[in-house]
UniProtKB/TrEMBL annotation:
Keywords: Hydrolase, Metal-binding, Zinc
EC number: 3.5.1.87
NCBIfam families: hydantase, PRK09290.1-5
Source organism (scientific name): Novosphingobium marinum
Binding site for Zn(2+) 2: D108, E143, H399
Peptidase M20 dimerisation domain segment(s): 227-329
CC cofactor note: Binds 2 Zn(2+) ions per subunit.
Residues holding Zn(2+) 1: H97, D108, H206
InterPro entries for this protein: Amidase_Cbmase, Bact_exopeptidase_dim_dom, Peptidase_M20, Peptidase_M20_dimer
Protein name (Swiss-Prot/TrEMBL): N-carbamoyl-L-amino-acid hydrolase
Cofactor(s) listed: Zn(2+)
Stated family: Belongs to the peptidase M20 family.
Amino acid sequence: MAGWRKAPLKTCRKGEPALRIDIDRIESDLAEIAKFGFNEEDRGIYRQGFTEADMAARAWMRDRFEELGMEHQLDGAGNVIGRYGPSDRPSVIIASHLDSVPAAGIFDGVLGVVAGLECVRAMKEAGHEPYYPIDVIGTSEEEGRFGGMLGAQALSGQLTREWLDSASDESGYSLKDAMRAAGLDPYDALHAYRRPESIRAFIEMHVEQGPVLDMERTTIGIVEGISGVFKWNVRLKGKADHAGTAPMNMRSDALMGMVDFAHEIQRIIDEEGTDKSRITIGHVALKPGFPHTVPGEADFTIVGRDLDEEIMRGLANACRRVLSSIARKHKLKFEYDEMSWLTPAICDRGIVDLIERKTKELGYSYKLMPSGAGHDVQFFCDYVKAGMFFVPSVKGVSHAPDEWTHWSDCEMGAQLLLECVAELSSKDAEVAATERELQH
C-alpha cells in the first residue's frame, strides 16, 4: 500500500504472541463490500436494507466466516452472525451494520463489522483461543429504511409483531414484502432475540460521522452514551396578508415568530442544557408560500438531544415557554405535537473504562464524548454490558460518497477493538478486573 502509516503499538501478554491486526486485509474487505450497491454515476453506495445488494453483502460475509471455520448463520431478522470459540458460554458480541443509506460512503457501519472479522483472523493466526466465544454480527436494516433498526431491535427483544405488520418505506413498500423478497419469513425475526445471559458484552466500533475528532486531531472517541431525542412538529398560526398593503406593525407573521425562536435556541441551551445538548430546526414549511403574501402559518420541526433525560425535559419545557411568549408577541397561535421521545442510552461504565484503559496502553489520544446519532449499541445498553467507540471521519462527512476515514485511523481503531475483545473473551478477565478494583 502506498504511503506511510503510523503503526499501532504491539502488545504482548505472558505466554502469548502479540496480537496484531492487518490493515491491508481491512482495506481489501471494505473494497470488496463496496462493490455491492456501488453506483458509477455518483460513486455512492446504494445498499438499503433487504435490497439485492444488501443480501449479497450478507452472503459475502458468510463466505468469509466459512473460510475462517466459524459457525455462522443468517438469523430471522437478516443479521449475519459468525462465531469463533466455544458454543456453551456467553459471547462477546462485535457488531455494526452492513446496510447503507442511498448514495453512502464505504465506512459507515461496515468498518465495525470488517474490523470484527479481522479481530478473529488475528486471533486465529496467533493461536489465541478465546474462553468466551466471539460473535461478529453484521446487523440488518440499521439505517431505518423501514423506520427502525430492525436487526438490533430483534436481537435485543425490542421487536413486536404489530410493528412488523405496519412498517413500510417512504414509497409504501412494506417491510414484510421486502423481507419475503429477500427470502426471509418476516415473523422469524421475532425468534432472533438473544437472552441477556447469552451475552457477555457488546462492543461497537464506528466512524464518528461528525467533525469533532478530526478537527481536534484526536484518534479515539470513547462513547459515554447515545443521546436521547425528542421530536416536535410545531405550528405557528397567524394571518396571511398582502405583502405590499399590510403594515409591518399590523402583521401576524408566522415566519417572524419562527425566526425569533431560532434566535433563542442558543440561550435555551446556555440556561437549561449542557455542552452535550442539541436543538435543531430541520424542516420548515410556510403557508401559503407565495412571494407576495405574508406567511400565515409556519410549520416546522424541533429536535432536541441530550445524554440526561432530566435535561431533555428542561430543554423541552424551555422551548414551550419561549414559543408561547413569542406567539403572544406576534399575535400568533402556537400548537405542537410530540412525535417521539427516545430516552438516552448510557454505555456500561465497565466497558467505557476498559476502552479507556486499552486506549492509554496503546498510546492513542482520546476523548470521552456522547453520540448524537443513533447506533445499534443503544438497544443493548439497558440489558447487557455494552459500549462503543469512534474513529475520526475526515471533515465529519458521512452518508455521502466522499465519506472518508484515514487508513491509519482504521488501523488504530481495529487494534483497539482487538485489545478490548481479547480481554473480554479471556477466562482471567474477571480476576484482573477484581484486582484493579482492589488496587483503587
